Amino acid sequence: MTEPGIEFEVLATDGKARRGRLSTAHGDINTPAFMPVGTAGTVKAMMPEDVAATGAEIILGNTYHLMLRPTAERIAKLGGLHKFMNWHKPILTDSGGYQVFSLANRRSINEEGVVFQSHIDGAKVELTPERSVEVQNLLDSNITMVLDECTEWPVTEDMARQSMELSMRWASRSKAAFEERSGYGIFGIVQGSMFPELRRESAARLVDTGFDGYAVGGLAIGEPQDEMFNVLDITVPALPKERPHYLMGVGKPDDIVGAVRRGIDMFDCVIPTRSGRTGQAFVRGGFLNMRNARHSDDSKPLDAACSCRVCANYSRAYLHHLVKAGEMLAGMLLTLHNLHYYQSLMEGIRAAIADGSFDEFVAKFDAENDAGATVAES
Amino acid sequence: MTEPGIEFEVLATDGKARRGRLSTAHGDINTPAFMPVGTAGTVKAMMPEDVAATGAEIILGNTYHLMLRPTAERIAKLGGLHKFMNWHKPILTDSGGYQVFSLANRRSINEEGVVFQSHIDGAKVELTPERSVEVQNLLDSNITMVLDECTEWPVTEDMARQSMELSMRWASRSKAAFEERSGYGIFGIVQGSMFPELRRESAARLVDTGFDGYAVGGLAIGEPQDEMFNVLDITVPALPKERPHYLMGVGKPDDIVGAVRRGIDMFDCVIPTRSGRTGQAFVRGGFLNMRNARHSDDSKPLDAACSCRVCANYSRAYLHHLVKAGEMLAGMLLTLHNLHYYQSLMEGIRAAIADGSFDEFVAKFDAENDAGATVAES
Fold it and tell me: What gap in Å lies between CA A243 and CA A235, rounded to an integer?
């Protein structure tokens, strides 16, 4: 890599679905890819080597959390986020915007950026597009995300337009602030809520500025799945085919399969990790609530067809016991299994696209899912 | 192993300190040995393979916790405790007595045994010497401990005698109830508080009954270290040299070194695991409180001379950050380091006894400890 930015190669396509490879200064990422979330410099309840062993090639770090504690400046002095958290593969960081906007009445927004109160010590902090890029640079993030305004849902078209236009001005400022270098990139984020015209206009403006990749934002915030898919049907065709497409904050396994079918290459979501810490296990065709007493004498693994360490070595009875006893190992093992489930799903998706059988893959996945929702929790 | 019971071989001695090997149906244990505590079927915050990787060859399971949840009968049906918790090396179980007696006003004792209220659902449960042995057998414990009464401290000699005599009657009943088989054993427990005559009498009565090993109980309950060492000076010489000597519930690193010097072969304690979950790290010569802000910019590992995964890969600054952020990984990494510290200590002790340099080992340990208490927390 001698060119600035990050390389992306589409290796195969099947319909709109793409099998690709992204190259960064810290290694390659096979796409479609799922990024486990490492909020505060740790994928919760996981040793980083175990995250890598599930097949994850990239994780997401949260700018909001890290800029407040331990601070980006401190992480930079300690050698960057990869070294700090002992994760030596690629890292994508969000802009911090999503968390700041969720602070509701503890933040105020203007053209310059957003001022908010820290949830840790109440201090007033300013986050501008330029500061967000600076923080992500201090973290040594391989993929920087532009600061955007998270448009509420539902929203009027007029408000959605104002919000989108602000985000597009911020995207240009973010790009201008970003220091281009080989193996590092910056992604723009398409906004526009559920309005097709706004989405198309947003995509066009970002393409005009020019980014290393394009994310679809403002989804997975409570809207029904078909509305999310409608937005993808409109938005993805408006994005450059030769650049990666990232659907932010998504999602459940069936969201991911449907989004890959619509041309999405990258995903992140807290679902597999958070579910693991609350006693939920993803299995083919559904999920299991390990708190349920019906597991107490069950010597079967979570999923007999799963190749993970948890399914090889532990019974549902044991996992149920750990959950009931409030043991940390419950969250550790269920998170490990869930991340393995997600990475296996992505591996299956990539293999199916590569050999042109993605439709069959989707049909089989849907059939299992329809049957399994009952099977798993009956 | 064709004889009933467990074999024990003294491989070397240095003064009263012994380097030995205990052989069970699930493998050998090199002594002096430290047993991490796996209370409720898990060494808290640890994957079992990581416990083994620290060098641990045996863990302790708690009869009280397991008999109440998930129940010993359930664990037996699921193939025993080793399989249940995915720990395939030896397991020693306590009798349940210590936890029951700590229930204070929720238990009542008589000649037959003790009746207590479960801390989980308030149910009335009876624990007799015979039931404790039965539960430990259902768990498939390699080393069963007799039920004894935990004598309070301080206590009058008269009360200590009554308590010791009850424990000795219970020890005989425990031995009678124990089903002898190859690779499995039962240990008696010497009581008698801080009274030399009572300790000697208790030891003699246990030896008369005959056990696979002998534990010293009723210590590490608040008494000063020199009182504990005094009891060992009196008690250990009264125990058969050809059988293992186990000091229950001990202790801090200097307690262990002092007890090995007095002829103790086995230890268990929650200190390394519990300390890990509360942000404490053992290092040569003392310990570090990782909550302390002085660590926030410190790029050094916990202990530069430590060979564990935590010291190889993480800075004090990162561990401080995890502790402050309340991340599970803090407890996971600090527990891993602390167990590695304890197992390294035991390895050093064993090597020193084997080559006749245990006095030098102790002198070096004491010197580090005297200097380190200041160094570590200055």
Answer: 14
